[in-house]
Design a protein that fits this description.
Elements (H helix, E strand, L loop, with lengths): L6 H30 L6 H11 L9 H31 L4 H24 L3 H21 L6
Length: 151
């Protein structure tokens, strides 16, 4: 897709950079989640998610250690996922290789459906909202760039 005024290539470049930056943000967030979950930086997550699973409000026994471990593992996974998004956006997506668009769309959709269903099922509505925001942040540039991959 080309336009005489250059708007179409600019739109593609915006989408590509958006995904690249989003991948970097997800990676940084993942590292922070892995290493800093028990700090005040993540109070909003704890105050929203903990009561869903620990109604008493007080974490007993090994619960705190379990949380540090599970959020460490989740954060590491998110960091890796963000790196993959960034690298896909930086090289094959920028080259308009259709498989890169398909990979991002399928991977993010699969994550969204499973994670959001389980979060909803267990009543972690804060996580559902968080998932929707991340999904939309990926979906918008994917939809805006789709026409550039129809070869």
């Amino acid at each position: 897709m080309k336009s005489d005024d250059g708007a179409e290539p600019q739109r593609f470049l915006l989408c590509q950079r958006w995904l690249l930056i989003l991948g970097a943000i997800i990676s940084v967030f993942g590292v922070a989640l892995a290493l800093l979950y028990s700090t005040p930086l993540f109070d909003i997550f704890r105050t929203q998610i903990d009561p869903v699973f620990w109604a008493a409000g007080e974490l007993a026994g090994g619960t705190t250690l379990f949380q540090q471990w599970i959020y460490g593992v989740l954060g590491a996974t998110m960091a890796g996922w963000g790196v993959c998004i960034a690298f896909l956006a930086a090289v094959p997506f920028k080259r308009r290789e259709k498989w890169a668009w398909n990979c991002l769309a399928l991977a993010v959709s699969l994550w969204f459906v499973i994670d959001t269903f389980l979060s909803w099922r267990f009543g972690a509505l804060f996580n559902v909202l968080f998932n929707v925001l991340i999904f939309l942040a990926v979906l918008v540039p994917l939809l805006l760039s789709r026409g550039f991959f129809r070869k």
